[in-house]
Amino acid sequence: EEQKEDNNSTECGELGIMDLKFTSSRKYISISVPSKSQTMSPHIKSVDDVVVLGMNLSKFNKPTQFFICVSGVFMFYLIYGYLQELIFSVEGFKPFGWYLTLVQFGFYSIFGLIELQLIQDKRRRIPGKTYMIIAFLTVGTMGLSNTSLGYLNYPTQVIFKCCKLIPVMIGGVFIQGKRYNIADVSAALCMSLGLIWFTLADSTVAPNFNLTGVVLISLALCADAVIGNVQEKAMKLHNGSNSEMVLYSYSIGFVYILFGLTCTSGLSPAVTFCSKHPVQTYGYAFLFSLTGYFGISFVLALIKIFGALLAVTVTTGRKAMTIVLSFLFFAKPFTFQYVWSGLLVVLGIFLNVYSKNMDKIKLPSLHGLWKKSAEERKTRTLSQTV
Questions:
Q1: Where are the transmembrane segments (predicted)?
Q2: pLDDT band with cut points at 50, 70 and 90 for residue 359
Q3: Which pLDDT does position 48 carry in this prediction?
Q4: For the chain, how are helix, strand and coil distributed in percent, rounded to 5?
Q5: Beta bridge partners of 55
Q6: Closest Cα partner for 112 from 189, 157, 53?
Q7: Quick one: pLDDT at residue 28?
Q8: Which pLDDT value is given to residue 293?
Q9: Which of 169-183, 236-250, 275-289 has the least mean pLDDT?
Q10: Cα dihedral value 340, 343, 348, 351, nearest 10
Q11: CA 308 – CA 225 distance, rounded (Å)
């Protein structure tokens, strides 16, 4: 028995030595891995960084990131909307919406190239095939949206774009397999009803109302809905940067539009007209594109940090503000039906925001309100009796 114990102790000792060796080898392996600061490239170190206009938002907490992104979206896109309507107010420019999109894409490509040169990592991380799809969708949403202004009032075009939440939700279900609650569905219904009411009001008070504009902006809305989900999926899957996304999607889109205008003989008349009004066309288009580029950078940051649905909610609120400014700065027919339909869309926005913050926003239930009212009546009766 003593010999067995000795043998057991010897085996345990050997196992202990082996375990120590194994443990030490594991420690050795873990220690042998170089530190991040020694070997990791700037690309790897900044995978999770979100940089907008040279500002690294990853250094801030989530509420601060949200505040910065929302402020940027509102500031730049309000100026963007004003300049867009100002360009189309130039007499004779309305047929050249696709040419404005071509110029806009050209400026966006230049801005994206400049920004890409200012960052450390210049490698393209998202596949070229994905960018070809994103570029096609971008051409659809921006080209059709600009062209629709030749047929619709600007507020009507904007209110259509406010309801992008509806196809975004549909796209989220089919592209990313998302599921939405009753508040999201109610938000979509409110926006749909508000959109229909606003369109009916526009058709009655606007003498230049054209159903072609409704078709164009509806197609732009569908493309706009798909592109948000595709961008979100591509940026999260490949860790693509905002400047990369803007540069490749808009430069490829520029080639698409240039090819289309050349084949349809729409390039020469537009160039001739704009050469006669360079300041009102190219000058405004530069400022229009610059503010739009800054705005899209903040939108892409919202998509990457908070997702496509919340980004759409923020941009929808911005568009509601744009409608108000449009009526203030540009003369156009007005009816209070615009107000009621706009408020219905705003209700849809609130429901969407509430659905994303149900744990923080506690609305009283009908049963709770009834119970509280009954207790107040009971207390009042008792006090009167005493």
A1: 66-84, 96-119, 131-152, 158-175, 182-200, 206-227, 247-270, 282-302, 309-331, 337-354
A2: low
A3: 56
A4: 80, 0, 20
A5: 52
A6: 53
A7: 43
A8: 84
A9: 169-183
A10: -130
A11: 9
3-class secondary-structure state, position 51: strand
Q: What is the DSSP string of 56-105?
A: EGGGS-HHHHHHHHHHHHHHHHHHHHHHHHHHHTSTT-GGGHHHHHHHHH
Looking at residue 55, the DSSP 8-state letter turns out to be: E
- With beta carbons less than 8 A apart as the criterion, state whether 93 and 87 touch: yes
Give residue-wise pLDDT tens across range 91-127. 888 888 899 999 999 998 898 888 777 766 667 788 8
Q: Looking at residue 6, what is its pLDDT? A: 53
Question: CA 292 → CA 80, 250, 297, 302, distances in Å?
Answer: 6, 12, 9, 15
What residue type is assigned to position 366 of the chain? L
Q: What is the mean pLDDT of residues 192-210?
A: 67
Both tokens assigned to 46: 């900044």
Do 209 and 149 touch, CB atoms closer than 8 A? Answer: no
Map 127-184 to HEC letters.
CHHHHHHHHHHHHHHHHHHHHHCCCCCHHHHHHHHHCCHHHHHHHHHHHHCCCCCHHH
3-state secondary structure 179-228: CCCHHHHHHHHHHHHHHHHHHHHHHHHCCCCCHHHHHHHHHHHHHHHHHH
Task: Give the C-alpha separation, 195 to 183, whole Å.
Answer: 18
Amino acid identity at 356: K
pLDDT digits (tens, 9 = 90+) for 21-80: 444 444 444 333 434 333 333 333 344 577 777 678 888 888 888 888 888 889 998 898
Helix (H) or strand (E) holding 316: helix 308-329
Tokens of 223: 């493309």
Structure tokens at 197: 């009411």
Alpha-carbon span 3 to 23, nearest angstrom = 29
24: Cβ–Cβ under 8 A, 6 or more apart, which residues? none
380's tokens = 């009042």
pTM greater than the 0.85 cutoff: no
| 16 has a pLDDT exceeding 90 | no
Residue owning tokens 């050997």: 14
Distance CA 275, CA 103 (A): 13
